[in-house]
Design a protein that fits this description.
The protein has 465 residues and is an alpha+beta fold. The chain has 5 domains: 97 residues, Uridine Diphospho-n-acetylenolpyruvylglucosamine Reductase, domain 2 (2-Layer Sandwich), CATH 3.30.43.10; 120 residues, Uridine Diphospho-n-acetylenolpyruvylglucosamine Reductase, domain 3 (2-Layer Sandwich), CATH 3.30.465; 93 residues, Alpha-Beta Plaits (2-Layer Sandwich), CATH 3.30.70.3450; 97 residues, GMP Synthetase, Chain A, domain 3 (2-Layer Sandwich); 39 residues, Orthogonal Bundle (Vanillyl-alcohol Oxidase, Chain A, domain 4), CATH 1.10.45. Helices cover 36% and strands 21% of the residues. The strands form 4 sheets. Strands 12-14-13-16-17-15 form a 6-stranded antiparallel beta sheet, with helices on both faces. A 5-stranded antiparallel beta sheet has the order 5-6-10-8-9. A 4-stranded mixed beta sheet has the order 1-2-4-3. Strand 16 and strand 17 form a beta hairpin. Helix 1 packs antiparallel against helix 4 and helix 15 runs antiparallel to helix 16. The longest helix has 20 residues. The two termini are 35 Å apart. Bound molecules: flavin-adenine dinucleotide.
Length: 465
């Protein structure tokens, strides 16, 4: 069956770019959010969209948004669907804009260390293209092989090597986007600019609600000359946090610094009994050697003895595994990871409060955390929970209860409710708490100005008034 918007899109783009076959629509109903996978097994699976549009050029995206804007048709951008907070859930009246056919490497410039890609380019394939020239993007989310450059920008993603190389906002040179009215913009120029507000930040983290990212230029690095690994066992989380603070505030920057609580340390390696801290050091050989020695001295001072470095090798080898939800849902369990952040003087209160609160949920099997992104002023925590509710009918309720407890514990101690997965639908109703009434009003004003007809990804990021 076709609808007037499908006919109009086929007229503008050609029939092969506007898909309505049920199998294709089914594949694009939602992202990787556990709730959507749970609902697929029950009475309320995400509906199919009206059609899937697969643009091949900026002009295709412009034509799609112009038509949608004229008719008030919702548009849901889809990168590679690895989002974990419900940023993509189709609706029967919506165009699902699948960016995966826009996947070209536009250029690699080894002099200025820049590389441009279409927004739908797979992250691992983008990295492979620059690695062939001895360069790196330096952005390694665990989902690198199942996510796109456009998705990284849209969600303000973080990679595992962020402590030295930065998060996506530190790696992006410029962003190209189509606004809801079809206008094309290129945001960002030169290595740095002081030309009014940095408009790239309007698009970064906008989760498909303010426009469609069509291309991105990343600022690259040369592949590091040397790499070394170290690991230490801190007697408890507080000692580990203090050691990490001392390391970064002294000026050292191991790209990877991860601290696991006792439960997660044991799960990582049966030999561990305390809180392990894993580090990867990279850069010029002399710097790496100096960093390894300095970090070892700081760890000794903190009474955190060395742990076997093969634990870091094992982590490196398995770090990009993507666990399927089915194995958990088949056992009537719900599980997820929730990442937040807080300043150094609050982080342990967030950790203790959230884990204690999670453990009180009936059927809670696991409540734990690790940190994985470190800053001069604080760090993130990545909570993991697994719950087997006494009544399987309560699975979705238990899932949201776990999220509520983690976010409320974080809010109570003044942390940020999202470190890198974004807001989607999972955190939307906490946005007033995160931004304050004034901040949320500003976000709504920006949304109205750019998208007065409200066509872009409705239901995501911005809570209902
Ligand atoms: C196993 C696993 C591990 C993960 N690890 C990490 C991690 O280490 N770090 C991290 O940051 N995230 C991680 N994620 C989350 C996810 O991979 C990121 O959010 C990623 O950036 C999403 O990219 P995507 O292309 O898959 O986007 P999608 O899931 O397709 O979309 C995500 C959001 O961005 C919007 N969007 C996508 N493309 C565009 C575009 N071109 N223009 C406008 N809006 C767009 C969508 O509408 C949606 O709101 C992980 C996910 C999984 C499943």
């Amino acid at each position: 069956m076709t609808t007037p918007i499908v006919d109009a899109l086929r007229g503008a783009l050609g029939p092969d770019q506007v898909l309505t076959d049920p199998a294709r629509l089914d594949e694009r109903r939602h992202d990787y959010w556990m709730v959507s996978h749970l609902r697929d097994r029950g009475a309320t699976p995400a509906p199919r969209p009206a059609c899937v549009v697969r643009p091949r050029s900026v002009a295709d995206v412009q034509a799609t948004l112009r038509l949608a804007n004229e008719r008030g048709t919702p548009v849901i951008p889809f990168g590679l669907g690895s989002g974990v907070v419900g940023g993509v859930i189709a609706r029967p009246d919506a165009i699902l804009l699948d960016m995966s056919a826009m996947s070209a490497v536009r250029f690699i410039d080894p002099v200025n260390l820049l590389a441009g890609f279409d927004a739908g380019r797979n992250g691992a394939e983008a990295e492979a293209a620059v690695a062939a020239q001895g360069l790196t993007i330096g952005h390694w989310p665990q989902s690198v092989a199942i996510s796109s450059g456009g998705g990284w920008i849209a969600t303000r993603a973080s990679g595992q090597f962020s402590t030295a190389y930065g998060n996506i906002e530190d790696i992006v040179h410029s962003i190209e986007a189509v606004l809801p009215n079809g206008e094309f913009v290129v945001l960002g120029k030169g290595p740095r600019a002081s030309a009014g507000p940095d408009l790239r930040n309007l698009i970064m983290g906008s989760e498909g609600t303010l426009g469609v990212i069509t291309g991105v230029t990343f600022s690259l690095r040369r592949a590091p000359e040397a790499r070394a690994l170290s690991a230490f066992e801190a007697p408890d989380m507080v000692t580990g946090f203090e050691l990490q603070r001392e390391i970064v505030q002294s000026g050292w920057r191991p790209p990877v610094m991860r601290q696991y609580d006792e439960r997660e340390s044991r799960r990582l390696d049966g030999r561990l009994t305390k809180c392990v801290i894993l580090m990867v050091h990279e850069g010029p050989k002399a710097l790496v050697e100096a960093e390894v020695a300095a970090v070892a001295a700081l760890a000794a001072k903190a009474e955190a003895p060395p742990a076997p470095a093969d634990i870091v090798e094992h982590w490196l080898d398995h770090r990009n595994n993507v666990p399927p939800w089915d194995a958990i849902l088949d056992r009537n369990m719900v599980a997820d990871t929730v990442e937040v952040s807080a300043d150094w003087d609050r982080i342990n209160s967030v950790y203790v409060d959230a884990v204690t609160s999670l453990k009180e949920i009936p059927g809670c099997l696991a409540a734990s955390a690790h940190s994985s992104h470190v800053y001069r002023s604080g760090l993130n925590l990545y909570f993991t929970f697994a719950i087997l509710p006494p009544d399987p009918a309560d699975m979705e309720r238990a899932y949201f209860e776990a999220w509520r407890r983690i976010l409320e514990a974080t809010g109570r101690h003044g942390g940020s409710l999202s470190h890198h997965h974004g807001i989607g639908r999972a955190r939307r109703d906490y946005m007033k708490r995160e931004l304050g009434a004034g901040g949320l009003a500003l976000l709504r004003t920006i949304k109205r100005a750019l998208d007065p007809n409200g066509i872009m990804n409705p239901g995501v990021l911005i809570p209902d008034a």
